Amino acid sequence: MTLPAENVAPQLTRNRRLIIVIGVVIPLLITVVGAFVMALWIPELPNPVASHWGPSGVNGYSTVGGMIALPLMITLAFVAFSAIASWRGGPNGGMLWAHKVMVATSVFLAVSITVLAAGSLAIQRGLESAENAPDPIGVLLAALPIAALMGFLAWLMLPAAERIQPTAVQARPVAGSPTERVYFSTTTRLGPGVVLIAAVALVALGLALAIQAVSNPAELLLPAAVGIFVITLAVSTLSWRITIDHRGLRVRSALGWPRTTIAPDQISSVAVVSVDPLGEFGGYGWRWAPGGRSGIVLSKGEALEVTRMNGKKFIVTMHDAPLAAEALATVAKK
Description:
The protein is 49% helix and 21% strand. It is of the alpha+beta class. It folds into three domains: 5-157; 167-189 and 239-334, PH-domain like; 191-237. The longest helix is centred in the first third of the chain and has 36 residues, at 5-40. The radius of gyration is 25 Å and the shape is elongated. The mean pLDDT is 85.
């Protein structure tokens, strides 16, 4: 149920203040303080400083300025994204589950990368050459629990998440002869805006691999393998094929995997719902949300919702969701 506008506005204003303070000001303050402390150490640090370690020791170097600036740039980019994504709030002005995750992650990210950067420089103070820098594994082991604790405290400071209750329109089977077979097939894709963002991220990953190849070719094998896998998986999930026939619902990515199948005897009900990818699922792609909901969420708007016999719901966004729902309801009825 959506509250009247006069009740929504105060709640929305309060949540926006929390977003600014907890999700923007605190993370930026953490990174700025960290940058100030690291800047005080510059006279004691070698030039360049060690920035990457491998099994045999230091195998990557950076300028001190680069090490100091990196946490600031990453934090600034993420807090801007999380604030913009959560600014509109939920239907009743509250903070959705995905919004809370993004705001708390802003704090976690700021603490983790700032502690890691500062710790990596702290162990190099007084060294003549960065080649002798010790492995910062202890810094990493300290940074993660501290960041997790700070992110958890940020989560507790935020209000309870507002639950979106989508209105499901139950699908009716198509009238026809018992001997007739139903067949439906379509393709759902990410919108051009999301594809652009994904392309930028993939290009950035490619550039990172290229830089690694030039600076440390001997250490490229593992990051290259991981990068190629991530790029392949990301490209394959930009487009999905949906097929409905006597075997039930089948959804597969462009490369055939990932994929899922829901047989007719596993279907409890079929409906059409309206989906907000960021608000309900925290993003696009194959997503999961509280309440046993999962599925292929590529756009905002109508989606096919399949409720399994165990109560879990599978969502697929598409432009012709009502027709798909009718077809699947017919298959499930037979």
